[in-house]
Each structure stands twice: as structure tokens, then as C-alpha cells.
Amino acid sequence: MTEDQKQKRTETAINKVDVNPDYLAKYAAEDTSLDTLKEHRVVPRFKLIQATTEDDLKKNFGEGSVIVRPGDALICKRGDDFKFVPLFFFIEWAKWRDLKGTGPMIMDRSYDVTNYIAVRSKDTKTRKELYPGMENVIDEKAKMYYQYVEHLRFIGVIYGDHPLVGQPVTLSFERGEWTQGKNFISAVAMRRQLIGDDESKTSIAVPLWAQVWQLGVVHHTPDQTRKWYGFEFESAEPSIIRPEEAAAMQALHEEYKDLFAKQRLSVQDEEAESSDKAAVKASEEF
After folding, report:
1. How far apart are CA 87 and CA 154, in angstroms?
2. Which of 86, 100, 113, 164 has the most CB atoms within 10 Å of its CB?
3. Number of neighbouring beta carbons within 10 Å of residue 237
4. Tens digit of pLDDT for each residue in 247-272?
């Protein structure tokens, strides 16, 4: 095929595409083809680029940057910050494979506090399990362990004037960040707002879905062997959503709450190629 023929074939193929999607409008009102997809929601999550993150991500975004996975969309660089509205909170327990292993990073997961994963994760003596058959391995570095991990999850949306405003995403705290997650839970629970006039002011608890938080990145260096990037938080300005946004935010909260109750809500965790060794160090407090 000559170059002219290739060009003509390409132009013909392009011309066959209807670039005006308005014809779909008459179908959209009564369409149900997406209904089953809505019944199960897999929410993307924030990922911090660590020193041990794969080279391509470090090259594209830089250490200490925040991205959303999947999709690898940049949220902010180290030194910058962004606003976040938490909509729904839940705890999930997961059994993670060793980084030296292969296959899915998460071997099993549960929302049930009585599940064996949750029970093992709460005890420093049982949250780390040696792989079967490695009992006689002498080299400690060659041994592989399962990790039983508690994840503190906040599903919310990016807020403010960010290019990805409204994007649902999960803010998750686990292992070395577990303590910071507990701090964030406390800060959220304590958020209050004064209402009323000067003569009859009263303080009320601000609903989770109405709070606005400013998130940034901090570099933790507790010792020479443990160094990683984590999230820091503070109250945003303004600290609550606008009145006209309240109904929509509350509706999103109820939607995620319903999905969770039906066990149809999950978080997009790291894929098998993850090599963030800093992320697997457990907090000594949990």
C-alpha cells in the first residue's frame, strides 16, 4: 500500500466517526447499562512517591509527590498542598504478601473486626507470619513474611480550585502512618462550628462530609533505617463546605455508606509491582 493510499484510508476511517454525541441523549434518560457497575465501587487512592518507588514514577513525578492510582494523575508536588473533603470512614483489614514474593500484594481482606486478619493485626506477636516452609532458613533477609494490616480509610473528594476537583479518592493510613491516621480521626471528630447570634451561640459537631482539610507531605526520619513520606493535615480555609454543596456531599456520604453496608465498596490498593519498602514498616504503637 502506497503512502497516498494509507493517507486516504486513514482519512476515510476518521470521517466515519460521528463526532457529535448528541444522538445519545434520547437513550441516556432510560438507560440501565451502567446500573450493575454502580452497585460495586472500586475507589482509587492517593499514593506518595517514596525513595523506593519504581524509577519511572520517581522520574515522572519526583519523590514526595502525591498521585492518584490507578491513572497516575498528579495531585501535588512535595512542598505544595491540596484540599480534601472526607465523605465516609471505614476500617479494613488485609493480609499482605512479602515484597519479595509474586502475585497480588493483598492475599485476603475483610471488614469484619472478628475476622482472623483483624485479630492477628491487633497483636504485635501475630501481625507478622513467616511463610510456610521457611522455618529453617538461616538468612533472615531471605525469609518472607505475611503482614496482617489495619487500614484506616477515608473516602472523599478533592476540593477547591484543583484541576481534579470532585475526584473521588481514598486517603488511607496504615503501618508507619497508622498513628497519623488516628490523629486525623481525632481531629475530624473534634471539629465543631459555632452557630446562632451573639446572644444564643452554640457549638455543634460538623458532619464528616462538610469538613474541608488541607493535606500536605511530610518526610519522616525516625532513624537511619526508617525514612518515608507521609501526609500532614491542618484545617483548610474555609474549613467547611459552601451551603449550596451540602445536599450533594451528604448524598455522596449516604451512597458510600450504603455500598459499604452491602460489601460493594473497595479501595484500589497497590498492584503486584509495588516496591515501596517504606510502606510496610509497622507502627510500634499498633
Report:
1. 7
2. 86
3. 8
4. 999 999 999 999 999 989 999 886 53
